C-alpha cells in the first residue's frame, strides 16, 4: 500500500519517465537471456549452453570421435579458486567443452576437471575420469577416444584404463602426433631455407613421442648431419638400444650420441642447430644460451623453453625460430563450437584468425582417423609402421603443419623473411649455419 500510495503522488511526467526506464531495463534483461551463443567468425560459435544438454535435446548430431584433455591453468583467477572450477563449474566430472566439424567427420572434446599441474599428482583419479569420459563418449556416438597432452603418460599410455569392448576404442594419438611433429620439422626448415642433411639435431626427451618422432623422421626425411639424444641417465640402456636400432635398421651414418640430462639441458645441446622437444619437464632449455640461427620444434607439454623469453629474443634479435610441433593446418576451415560459461568468458584466449580457422592438433585428429577410418590406434609405445601410415594419411588428406606459432602468438611472416636472409642455407657464417 505504501508503494502504491507513493506512486500515486508522482506527476504524470515522472511516472512516464519511470515506466520508460523500467521498460528499457526489462529489454536489457531479456536481451541478455536471449544471447546464449555468439559467432565471432563464420567458423566459430561460442555457446553458453552446456553442450551435453544440446546432444540430449537432439540439437547436436552424434559425433564420430572424442578427444580428452584437461583444464588450462589460466582458468584459476579473476576471483575463482581451482575448486570453484573443478567442482563448482565442472561438478568433478568430465565437461563437454568443444565440438569440431571437419569434412571427414565430427570430433567432440571432453575436458577433465583437473589442470596440467594435477595430472601426475592425481594419476589414479585421472584414470577414473577417463573411464567416465569413455561412457560419455559412447553416449554421444563416438567410436574412438584419444588421450591428449600429459594424459597418455599419466595412464601408462592408456594401459591403466579399465576397458571393455562396449566402449569406444582408446588411442594415445601418438602416431598422428608424431606425424605432425615431423611435418613441423619440414615446415620450419622450409621457412628458414635450410636442409635437414646439413643440420645438427638434438632430441630433448626420448619418451613415446620423442622416440617415435626420431624413427619416423629417419624413415621419411633426409638424415641429419648429426644426432644428439638427451634424456635422464636412468634411460641409458634403453637409449643405447635405440641407437643400435638407428644404426642397423634405419641405416643412420652420421654422428650419433647420447647425452644424459638432469634438471636442465647439458652444454652439448647448445651446439645443435635444430632442437626437437618432446619432454614433460618445463623450461629445460635456456633461451639465452641458444646459438644464433637455432631452430626449435617443440611438442613438449608444457614447453621445454620459456616461451615469453623466446618471443622477446625473436622480437629483439630475430636470431632464433621456433614453433609448436603437434599442430596441423587442415585443408579447409573447421567449424568449431566452444562451451564458454558466462563466468569464464574472461579466460578464453582464442584468436579469431585464419590460423585458428584451420587449426587442429594431431592428437585430437587421431581420434577421428581411428574411429571413422580405422587407421591404427595406439596403446603403449608407437608402432613405427603405424606412424608411417598416419603420416601418409595426413599428406593424402591435405593436412600440413601449422604456420609457425607458440600458443596464441603468431610468428610475423616479415620477420621470418629476415631470419631466412641471415640464417638460411644460402648464407654460411663462422658457426657453419
The strand line-up of the biggest sheet is 1-2-15-4-5-3-6-7
Taken as a percent bin, the fraction of beta residues is 15-25%
Cα gyration radius (Å): 25 Å
Number of strands: 19
CA(first)-CA(last) distance: 88 Å
Shape: globular
Task: List the main descriptive attributes of the protein structure presented here.
433 residues; alpha/beta; Rossmann fold; 2 domains; eight-stranded mixed β-sheet; six-stranded parallel β-sheet; 14 helices; disordered C terminus
Q: Could you characterize the architecture of this molecule?
A:
- By secondary structure, this protein is of the alpha/beta class.
- The chain has two domains: 198 residues, no CATH class; 175 residues, Rossmann fold (3-Layer(aba) Sandwich).
- Helices cover 37% and strands 21% of the residues.
- The protein is built from 14 helices and 19 strands.
- The strands form four sheets. It has an eight-stranded mixed beta sheet with strand order 1-2-15-4-5-3-6-7. It has a six-stranded parallel beta sheet with strand order 10-9-8-11-12-13. Strands 16-14-17 form a three-stranded antiparallel beta sheet.
- β18 and β19 form a beta hairpin.
- α7 packs across α13.
- The radius of gyration is 25 Å and the shape is globular.
- It starts with a helix and ends in a 10-residue tail after the last helix.
Amino acid at each position: 500500500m505504501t508503494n502504491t500510495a507513493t506512486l500515486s503522488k508522482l506527476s504524470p511526467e515522472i511516472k512516464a519517465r519511470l515506466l520508460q526506464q523500467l521498460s528499457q531495463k526489462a529489454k536489457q534483461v531479456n536481451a541478455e537471456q536471449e544471447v546464449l551463443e555468439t559467432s565471432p567468425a563464420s567458423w566459430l560459435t561460442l555457446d553458453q549452453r552446456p553442450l551435453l544438454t544440446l546432444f540430449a535435446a537432439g540439437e547436436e548430431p552424434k559425433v564420430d570421435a572424442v578427444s580428452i584433455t584437461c583444464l588450462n591453468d589460466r582458468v584459476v583467477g579473476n576471483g575463482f579458486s581451482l575448486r570453484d572450477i573443478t567442482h563448482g563449474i565442472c561438478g568433478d566430472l568430465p565437461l563437454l567443452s568443444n565440438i569440431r566439424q571437419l569434412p571427414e567427420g565430427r570430433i567432440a572434446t571432453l575436458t577433465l576437471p583437473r589442470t596440467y599441474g594435477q595430472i601426475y599428482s592425481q594419476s589414479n583419479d585421472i584414470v577414473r575420469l577417463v573411464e567416465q569420459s569413455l561412457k560419455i563418449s559412447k553416449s554421444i556416438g563416438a567410436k574412438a577416444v584419444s588421450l591428449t597432452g600429459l594424459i597418455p603418460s599419466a595412464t601408462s599410455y592408456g594401459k591403466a584404463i579399465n576397458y571393455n569392448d562396449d566402449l569406444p576404442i582408446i588411442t594415445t594419438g601418438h602416431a598422428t602426433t608424431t606425424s605432425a611433429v615431423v611435418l613441423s620439422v619440414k615446415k620450419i626448415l622450409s621457412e628458414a631455407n635450410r636442409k635437414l642433411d646439413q643440420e645438427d639435431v638434438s632430441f630433448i626427451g626420448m619418451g613415446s613421442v620423442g622416440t617415435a618422432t626420431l624413427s619416423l623422421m629417419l624413415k621419411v626425411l633426409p638424415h641429419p648431419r648429426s644426432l644428439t639424444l638427451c634424456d635422464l641417465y636412468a634411460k641409458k640402456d634403453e637409449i643405447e638400444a635405440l641407437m643400435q636400432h638407428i644404426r642397423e635398421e634405419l641405416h643412420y651414418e652420421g654422428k650419433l650420441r647420447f647425452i644424459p640430462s638432469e634438471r636442465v639441458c647439458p652444454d652439448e645441446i647448445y651446439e645443435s642447430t635444430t632442437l626437437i622437444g618432446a619432454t614433460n619437464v618445463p623450461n629445460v632449455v635456456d633461451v639465452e644460451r641458444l646459438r644464433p640461427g637455432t631452430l626449435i620444434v617443440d611438442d613438449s607439454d608444457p614447453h621445454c623453453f620459456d616461451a615469453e623469453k623466446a618471443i622477446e629474443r625473436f622480437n629483439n634479435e630475430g636470431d632464433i625460430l621456433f614453433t609448436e610441433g603437434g599442430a596441423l593446418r587442415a585443408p579447409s576451415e573447421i567449424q568449431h563450437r566452444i562451451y564458454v560459461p558466462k563466468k569464464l568468458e574472461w579466460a578464453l584466449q582464442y584468436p579469431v584468425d585464419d590460423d585458428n580457422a584451420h587449426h587442429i592438433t594431431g592428437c585430437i585428429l587421431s581420434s577421428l582417423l581411428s574411429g571413422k577410418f580405422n587407421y591404427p590406434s595406439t596403446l603403449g609405445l608407437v608402432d613405427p609402421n603405424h606412424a608411417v601410415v598416419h603420416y601418409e594419411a595426413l599428406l593424402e588428406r591435405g593436412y600440413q603443419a601449422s604456420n609457425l606459432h607458440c600458443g596464441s602468438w603468431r610468428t610475423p611472416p616479415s620477420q621470418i623473411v629476415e631470419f631466412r636472409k641471415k640464417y638460411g642455407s644460402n648464407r654460411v657464417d663462422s658457426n657453419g649455419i
